Amino acid sequence: MHSPRTTLSQQPQLGTTDTRRSRWFAPSVPTRSAFNCSSVGPAAVRDPAQAIANTRPSTQFILAPLTSKVVTVVIQSPYPDVEIPDLTIYDYLFGGIDPSDLLEPALVDTETGSVTTYRELIEQIDAIAGALAARGLEIGDVVGLLSPNNPAFASALHGALRAGGTVTTINALYTIEDITAQLRDAKPKFLFTAASLLPQAREAAAASGITETNVIVLDEATADAQGAPLSLRALLAEHRDAPEVSIDPATHIAVLPYSSGTTGRPKGVMLTHRNLVANLSQLQPVSDITSSDTLLAVLPFFHIYGLTVLLNAALHARATLVTMPRFDLAKALTAVASHQCTYLFIAPPIALALAKHPDVDDYDLSSVRTVFSGAAPLGKDLAQKVAKRLKCRVRQGYGMSELSPVSHAIPGHAYADDIDPSSVGLPLPNTENKLVDPATGAEIDQPAAGTSAPGELWVRGPNVMAGYLTNPAATAETIDAEGFLHTGDLASIDATGVVTIVDRLKELIKYKGYQVPPAELEALLLRHPKIADAAVIGVPDEDGEEVPKAFVVRHPNTELSEADVLNFVDTRVSPHKRVRQVEFIAAVPKSAAGKILRNELRSAPAPTAR
Question: Which member of 148, 176, 256, 262 lies 3.0 to 4.6 Å from 168 by CB, making a disulfide possible if both were Cys?
Fold first, then answer.
């Protein structure tokens, strides 16, 4: 754990190098004992008002720059460090649950209407752990989990973890080839799947050496030529006790999600129990989720954003999760209205629908108090439109699988209402940041006023992954000798400590020596009333110069020409940022987490000349 922030009595000698401390200091910040995240169970969230008072950074958490520049450029979180308990994720989430919470609903399935209480969830987790152990699962064995969101996902995930296993979550949209590749790399002994995915799961399991008897269906599946598969119901019916296991939370790999592969071959990201517990602990001072909240769970649990920020964070808060297997706007709006959801965790494509789709006005969404966006950049204009239409707060965070996943967030509390919603907020507790000029390698300092120049964001903290599975070379390229993870994202920081992501370093367009961030142009294009969605990439022009090209989705029943798009952008940006080419498409290709799949746009055949 990192040392507490510098106090006045501890501030470094002016003019000396101190690689541990920011050039900013906040002597009035409370000590870490004011908020003890080691509490397991509802005590940590039972009195949110007191928690907020004890943990939020002072409104003057950056009081003033020192009069003489300190050489250091390591940027500390404005929050005091939180305690990270030495617990497994199971013990952290359920080890000290208050008896009064056991009968409260943990998960609601929108497909079946079934409700799983916290007591039932824990009983299922323990029974699954016992059944897996009885079938030969040993500490460190890998379990695959291929399923859309449903309550059984949570039971299977934590059941395997409870037994000492490592869970590799698999994208439910993957092809048989993609599933097979991940299974061969992760080498699981068991594979949980949904009945709707059973055919591809069986084929991939057979190709990767998983026996048919170790393929387990979470819901009911009909028998076929291969017979009826082993079901989760059968495991639960055995009523086995969970095994006694002894693992080191700091080193034992809990989950093994795979990177998206947008910049190369997908890699297994090794996250320990301590990584997961640390990130949940780090989120406590910025999160305002309580046991009275109901969360719409449409973001996929197989993605680390859905797994940590949505599933595990809600369970820790004793909130209720309303699960959806996939996003469908009408079904999502119906679920929010009928279950009175108070918190929506989304990605920008859902924000776009909430802001622009006419059907939104047909539903009572008055219960929603906060919308939190992640996984991809959310523009200020779009955030404000969602906030105005739903009459709620809109927040944004930043992270990546390698960070468990969150490193920055706009706090959910009222004191953060003035933070720019297009930013990603403040660095989480226990983290340190650097901004590094990608061209020169020079470290960029936090400014005394205004906003810094952009640099690649580096992050160090207890949420940084253990490494990539069987890939030490890639690990060394990502995490340096000082423990900083190089995110590959360009960011800036302002004088108040607020961080804004500019774009992916590898996605910047270089036009005549100028850097053009695609995300900035995409946010601008979405402000056009006739544009439903947009993506921007760099393409070569006839002279070989890289220029910005916009892929635009028109709103239905609207007329919009290439000239209209070009003129709209030209009048609102600097000359070097102007869009030079436009192509109209039916839909922008995106991952399940909402990230634009730019590689697909680059590889798509060029349209015929008009």
Answer: 256
